[in-house]
Amino acid sequence: GSGKTTLLTETLILLSKQWPCAVIEGDQQTTNDADRIRATGVAAIQVNTGKGCHLDAQMVHDAYHQLASNERGFIFIENVGNLVCPASFDLGEDCKVAILSVTEGEDKPLKYPNMFAAAKVMVLNKVDLLPYLDFDIDACIANARRVNPQIQNIKLSAKKG
């Protein structure tokens, strides 16, 4: 995939040293990603959507109230992994982030404009693979800005920084 869960676990390892963190983890099936989150020491509530392709506000509300801690710092919502359905639903988040792997192609912001129009930030992940790919990072950023002129971008490798 794009590396959402890897990026989230690496972020939590650093952030949870200074701030309380929790995760609401959305997937159609399994607890695999929530288990990876919990392995960092951070609380995670798994929400399985079954045949659904996204979380909705009620699912997030219910999961939020399952979190034990009254001390809130950061709550991350990792939605089901696609660029179509999650874009259209307001989950009450402060910041929607679109994560795009450079292995997916620079045309994705144009193919899935709703996600990039809704996002405040686009994370371009796996940039350590750029020497091995035919990926135009400037074109990707330009494509994202065509659908959302205010979108911020961060270039990184979830595994290497």
UniProtKB/TrEMBL annotation:
GO terms for biological process: protein maturation. Residues 1-153 form the CobW/HypB/UreG nucleotide-binding domain. InterPro entries: CobW/HypB/UreG_nucleotide-bd, Hyd_mat_HypB, P-loop_NTPase. One of its GO terms (molecular function) is GTPase activity. It comes from the Bacteria. Keywords: GTP-binding, Hydrolase, Metal-binding, Nickel, Nucleotide-binding, Zinc. The keyword Hydrolase applies. PANTHER family: HYDROGENASE MATURATION FACTOR HYPB, HYDROGENASE PROTEIN ASSEMBLY PROTEIN, NICKEL CHAPERONE. Belongs to the SIMIBI class G3E GTPase family. HypB/HupM subfamily. This is Hydrogenase maturation factor HypB. It comes from Photobacterium damsela subsp. piscicida.
